């Protein structure tokens, strides 16, 4: 008997998956039935990954499964949301059981870690692409947004920046790095860690937030545009990993941190009046944020500085753009 679409769903996306009490009906019907908690607002994010654009043939299927969920969970984190449900639209060129086993394993792992349930989606035949829609909750009025930054607010980023960009450059043989550094940055590229806990800790503290998916310069400018403000960044304060600084010179390392996509860290602003509360809230956070600058009143003006002078060492484009 042929192995068809519904066998695929039953084998790879129904058995041994996490289940939540707020899912009345999940995978297997025309649509899901879900319960939204009282006094909560629903946060929804969607991202697509396309073979040959977001990943290539050498990317392990498990990494693809992890990352297609992680990029959506990072969007929820930037809104301060608690993840709840995922839906998946999967387009496959053929029935590849080894690939499906690895992909579903990676997706199931991250769903279990963040207590997300797969609630449905679609499967079709065609060029390999994956679209995930993630749903989460925030208390009414507590969502983090891009439009709340004010002059004088401090600018922070979580974790370290630029590693995924270095990994991609090494994969494409645009830079040579040591095997140990390559393993470190490749892990960051393949298995990003969405800062879900940090996002929730920032509710009622941060004045604005965004996740860094297209590069710090590109994504910070979204906050500046939405909030009608400017920013001053001290490039020497940007957190860089030892793998990055040990692989390229100082200006190149900063350029990777400013312009590379796929970091999936958070960039956010904190008013001076809330810095004490913020320091207490994140004191034991594993990806302790770093203050890299301050919001200014000059709308949409991003000034990169070193020792108080304009820094012009950035090379390459300002961030990832599908159509540039």
Characterize this entry briefly:
The chain is α+β, with helices and mostly antiparallel strands and 324 residues long. It contains 10 helices and 13 strands.
Task: Write up what this structure looks like.
The chain is α+β, with helices and mostly antiparallel strands. It has two domains: 5-139, PurM-like, N-terminal domain (60s Ribosomal Protein L30, Chain: A, 2-Layer Sandwich), CATH 3.30.1330; 154-310, Alpha-Beta Complex (Phosphoribosyl-aminoimidazole Synthetase, Chain A, domain 2), CATH 3.90.650. It has ten helices and 13 strands. Strands 8-10-7-11-9-12-13 form a seven-stranded mixed β-sheet, with helices on both faces. Strands 3-6-4-5 form a four-stranded mixed β-sheet. The chain has a two-stranded antiparallel sheet with strand order 1-2. Strand 4 (82-92), helix 3 and strand 5 (117-125) form a beta-alpha-beta unit. The longest helix has 18 residues, at 61-78.
List the helices and strands and how they pair.
Layout: H1 5-13, E1 23-25, E2 33-34, E3 40-50, H2 61-78, E4 82-92, H3 97-113, E5 117-125, E6 129-139, E7 154-157, H4 163-171, H5 179-190, H6 196-201, E8 208-212, H7 216-227, E9 230-234, H8 242-245, H9 250-259, E10 265-270, H10 275-281, E11 290-296, E12 302-306, E13 309-310
Parallel strand pairs: 4-5, 9-12
Antiparallel strand pairs: 1-2, 3-6, 4-6, 7-10, 7-11, 8-10, 9-11, 12-13
Helix pairs in contact: 2-3, 4-5
């Amino acid at each position: 008997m042929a192995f068809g679409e519904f066998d695929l769903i039953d084998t790879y996306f129904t058995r041994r998956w996490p289940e939540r009490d707020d899912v009345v009906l999940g995978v297997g019907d025309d649509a899901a039935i879900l319960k939204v908690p009282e006094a909560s607002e629903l946060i929804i994010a969607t991202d697509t990954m396309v073979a040959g654009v977001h990943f290539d043939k050498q990317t392990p299927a498990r990494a693809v499964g992890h990352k297609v969920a992680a990029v959506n969970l990072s969007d929820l984190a930037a809104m301060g949301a608690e993840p709840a449900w995922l839906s998946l639209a999967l387009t496959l060129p053929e029935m590849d059981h080894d690939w499906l086993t690895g992909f579903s394993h990676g997706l199931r792992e991250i769903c279990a870690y963040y207590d997300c349930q797969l609630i449905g989606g679609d499967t079709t035949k065609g060029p390999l692409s994956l679209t995930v829609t993630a749903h989460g909750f925030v208390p009414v009025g507590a969502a983090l947004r891009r439009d709340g930054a004010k002059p004088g607010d401090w600018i922070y980023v979580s974790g370290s920046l630029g590693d995924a960009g270095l990994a991609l450059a090494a994969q494409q043989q645009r830079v040579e790095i040591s095997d140990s550094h390559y393993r470190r940055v490749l892990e960051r590229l393949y298995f990003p860690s969405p800062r879900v806990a940090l996002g929730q800790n920032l509710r009622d503290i941060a004045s604005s937030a965004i996740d860094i998916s297209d590069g710090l310069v590109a994504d910070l400018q979204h906050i500046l545009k939405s909030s009608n403000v400017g920013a001053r960044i001290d490039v020497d304060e940007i957190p860089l990993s030892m793998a990055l600084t040990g692989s390229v010179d100082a200006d190149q390392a900063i350029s990777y941190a400013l312009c590379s996509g796929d970091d999936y860290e958070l960039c956010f602003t904190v008013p001076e009046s809330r810095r004490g509360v913020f320091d207490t809230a994140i004191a034991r956070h594993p990806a302790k944020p770093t203050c890299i600058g301050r919001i200014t009143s000059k709308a949409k003006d991003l000034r990169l500085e070193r020792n108080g002078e304009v820094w012009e060492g950035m090379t390459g484009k300002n961030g990832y753009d599908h159509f540039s």
